[in-house]
C-alpha cells in the first residue's frame, strides 16, 4: 500500500474515533553532547519532517491523548508532558494534504495543542510508527537542514521560549542529565536553553544556593584537566523547588 | 422568549458558524481597593456564574475569536489576552445543559482554551450580552459566595497560578494600576497575586532595581501618615523588561 492510499484508509477510521478540528503536538527536548535535540518524525507521505503529533479520541481526556500519541508514534512512555501553547491560525495545516480532496479527515482545519517535555534520549529506544520513515532526535542547530512541514518549526520555537522562561522559576535538568553530572555539564545545559554564555562563578554560586544538588564523593576521570567533582540531584529538594517555584519575591 | 428557548434558537445558528468541540474562556483579572477581582457573567439560563467564554468561528483565527468573544460578552475591547491553559477533561461542560437533548450545540463535548488578561476595571463600563443577567467584577475572596458552573473555578485557579509564576519573570502592574500609584499600592498588588505578605524594605529595593519605575515630584495627600511619594511606570523600560523577562541567570 503506498503512502497516499494508507492515509485514505486512515481517514475513514479517524472520522469514527477522533474529535474533528483538534490535534496535539508534543515537543520533546533531549540533551546530549552539550546540545539540545528535539524529537521529529519523517513521514513516508511526502518525506517531510513533523513533530510526533496526533488526534484526540472522542472518548478520552486531552491529557491522556497526548500520552497515547507519543507512545504510538515514538515508543516513549514515561515523559512528563506539559501544555505550553495553542496554535489556532487558519490554514496552518490544511495545505500539507493538498493532494487529497476535502473529505479527507486530515485536511480539515486543525487547532493544535502544544505539549512540552524534557527527556533523556538514552532512556529509550525510539520506535517509529507505520506512517513514518524515521523517528529521530535532531539537534536544534540542524533543524535548518531538514524540510519541516506546516507550522511545526514555529511550535518548536515557542516551546524553546517557554523553556527559557521556565528556567527562571523552576529547576531544570532532572529529566535531561544522567544521574551523575559535573557542574560544568549542568552549566552547559542552562547555556543552551538560555542561548547565551554564563559566568562560571555566578552560575556555580546561584545553582548551589538553590539547594537542589548533592555533591558526590566521586570525580569525573579522564579529562585533560583536574578531575571535576560529580553531583546528583537531591530528589526531595528538587521536587520541592519544582512545586514551589524559585520565587524572586 | 424564555432562556431555554433562547438557547435552542442559538444552537441552530451555532452549528452553522462555529467549530464543534472547541471553546475559549477569558479570565480577566482586575485590581481595586487592594483586592484582585475576576470578570464573571451570570447567565439568565439557570442563573449560574461563568467566565465570559464562547466559541470559535470556522473562518477566524483562534486569537481573533477570544478578542471577539470578550467584546461581545462584556464590552471589553482593549485587553491583552494570553493563552495560559487548556481544559480538556471528558464531561467538563456537558452537564450544565442537562435539560436539553443531545442535538444541542452547547451540550457536545468542549475542550476549552483559557486566556488570561490583566485589566484596570475603571477603564471601561461593562456591557452584558443578551444571554446574561449580569456582567460583574467579583473579588477573588467572594467567589465562594456565587454559584459557579462547570469547571470555571478550576480555570480561574489555574490562571491565578500562572500569574503567580509570571510575576517572577515579567513586570506586572501596568494594566492593573492607575497611572500614578504609591509603592505600597504596588506592593499590595504583588502580595495579593503571590498570596503572601512581603517585607517592605526588600520589596522596595527589588522593585526599584528592576528600573521600571519613575518617581514623580508628587505625593498622595490625605492619609493619616506622612504623604507617600507617587510613582509611574517608565514605559520604555517596562516594555523592555516585558520582552526580555527578569532573568535570574
Automatic annotation (TrEMBL), chains A, B:
Pfam name, any one: NUDIX
Q: Which UniProt keywords apply?
A: Hydrolase
Q: Which InterPro entries match?
A: NUDIX_hydrolase-like_dom_sf (IPR015797), NUDIX_hydrolase_dom (IPR000086), WH-like_DNA-bd_sf (IPR036388), WH_DNA-bd_sf (IPR036390), WHD_NrtR (IPR054105)
Superkingdom of origin: Bacteria
Instruction: Indicate yes or no for the key word Hydrolase.
Output: yes
Q: Where is the signal peptide?
A: none
What PROSITE patterns does the annotation carry?
NUDIX
- Gene Ontology MF annotations: hydrolase activity
Q: What is this protein called?
A: NUDIX hydrolase
Q: Which organism is it from?
A: Chryseobacterium formosense
